[in-house]
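Obj.: predict assembly geometry.
Materials: sequence records (below).
Method: joint structure prediction, all chains together.
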Amino acid sequence: MSGVSAFGFAVEGGEGLARAGRLGLPHGEVLTPAFMPVGTYGAVRGLHPEEVERAGAQIMLGNTYHLHLRPGEDTIRALGGLHRFSTWPGPILTDSGGFQVFSLAGLRTISETGVEFTSHIDGSARTLTPELSMEIQAALGSDVAMAFDHVVPGQASRDLAAEGMERTLRWLDRCKARHGELVERADRRTDGRTDAIDGDGLQQTLWPIVQGGIHDDLRRRSLEGTLARGPWTGIAIGGLSVGEPKPAMRRMLESLAEGLPTDRPRYLMGVGFPEDLLEGIALGMDLFDCVAATRNGRHGSAWTASGKLNIRKASNRIADVPIDSECDCATCRRFSRGYLRHLFVSEEMLGLRLVSLHNVRFLIRLGERAREAIRQGDFARWSRNWLERYRGREET
Amino acid sequence: MSGVSAFGFAVEGGEGLARAGRLGLPHGEVLTPAFMPVGTYGAVRGLHPEEVERAGAQIMLGNTYHLHLRPGEDTIRALGGLHRFSTWPGPILTDSGGFQVFSLAGLRTISETGVEFTSHIDGSARTLTPELSMEIQAALGSDVAMAFDHVVPGQASRDLAAEGMERTLRWLDRCKARHGELVERADRRTDGRTDAIDGDGLQQTLWPIVQGGIHDDLRRRSLEGTLARGPWTGIAIGGLSVGEPKPAMRRMLESLAEGLPTDRPRYLMGVGFPEDLLEGIALGMDLFDCVAATRNGRHGSAWTASGKLNIRKASNRIADVPIDSECDCATCRRFSRGYLRHLFVSEEMLGLRLVSLHNVRFLIRLGERAREAIRQGDFARWSRNWLERYRGREET
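Observations (raw structure tokens):
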């Protein structure tokens, strides 16, 4: 590994709030800004890990909630941890399960201890606590574990947002304590050896999550409380892109800008439509994730330089051009819109896969290009032009 | 291209009735015996053409019936023919649609003209005739077109089998006439140039199909009538593996063995379970196709050297071994049974794809190994051992 130490972050260029960085993780480096494809069950939906790698992904997400229910962390631990199990060779970030259990409206009960919920798979009664989330993520062996947070809906009242934010801070103490124990215990087992990434050792860092709904002061209080609790190697902003009015995200990120340490990576959770990615980058965010790339892909909706394309439309029937003639993805280099439309119309699995792959590459490439523009001091101009064209308002 | 001329066939070794051959086709050579994966809609279900190629497939099948209904041959012609449309670079064999329309029991009416049927897609009334089948296959631009035949069920009476067989012969005359016109017309358009494979030229051969149910004499009569009608570059045996008693296939192939020209490839249609492939090879068959590889794969059923494996079984939960430790497919080289089981249990598309790919490679490799054994004069011994182990009766 070159450049930065494990869990280190180097800022290599900046323009306004936007940054180009380099994040070191036990399984490899991540050049930022970067989109992280979501591998809910240890596979980016519909894609082979080799395809994800060739699409330029540097880090994959895993979902603690889903992997806890299926196949269960004991199974994954028995098969060597999430890296070996999924055969994904690069860094992995696991979420905490918080977002998923709080999304189970009507099926969960929140207390200070944690969240009791009903499994969406078999209806069984389960509990997720800050401690258990840490234990599951330790068993998965991800490079980055996320703190277990209390997420509130985007339209939540000030009181509810404050309650979730304060609880997230209290839970952060518990996450930190348990995570510390788990790392220490693993270190004892390996006699202090730090090369045992896939063995008993646990080379994992814990990132906290800033909450506070759409209230500037709550967000700032959350950030202060978070920073007071430890020298984190990275900080996530959660609870945005969850139904709040569109301009709120910008306002929240602006209100946090001053307080965020500049030498730590910032992860804007759940954000990953092209225009939101660019807005997040402009406001100093470094990492992004979203299932839209693969979910839209499965429905035949593809992103292109000039906006969204519905591959199923009749106008693509004999279109002998790729989804996006400027795209360098494996789908665009080989297949015509006409063939892709045919695969969707005749319900051939290959279609879902090819458009998902295109969308994943599209977001990864957007991150790569933003990084390049930032390093050249050209980000503001470039992203304005990019967005104008994407939104179909290009004058030329 | 080396070795044989287009549509030529060279026998390079033999043992008993089994042969090792080399078939020349406009888009490449096929070393026989060979399993041909089925790309119903211009894609081997769940697989990328690159994966199919890497699995060692030398030729892909396309289904005239399905492609006629979706997307329609006009669409495929507009997009450059089936090769360019599907991006499959090697030879393609298209069936005639006969098998499919005769399978539409209750939805079709047979007359001497052809078959009127109801589309399984939109319920529209359609007709398929020998002439139309030739026209569709010419539009698809496959290397090998199959004659439009009258297929009867495996348990059909002697009278019905005789009727279907005689009609197949009469229809063969019509197929031959129309195919000849189509090739000639294409030649005129290209001024006799034969290099215009993907252009207006039609470098396509027509193969007849021997019918006759499970009646030795009808089969022999069909073969005689077929041979009397032209100097075919290949001959197919149809109407087997369609519900007849298991030993009937062997009896039919034995009764045809003497009459089949030795210098032409023989295609045993619809056959492709491992044990049937070996039996067919032993009885002098060269080419095979079957959807079982991908259909079983989608259900999590995998072939291994020691028999069938149901990947969903609980016993695979923490199995840190590949489907088949002797298999060289991309799935077995990378993924554990435990991970594959997890993909099936959590309904991840990737699972269907990985097991389908294994099964396709399994049959292709079986053909490769049979070819090697035949050339070394070791086929009888090798296939006996192989089958014993596959059926779990190995003594060691």
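Conclusions so far: The two ends of chain A are 45 Å apart (CA to CA).
To do: check interface contacts against the pulldown list.
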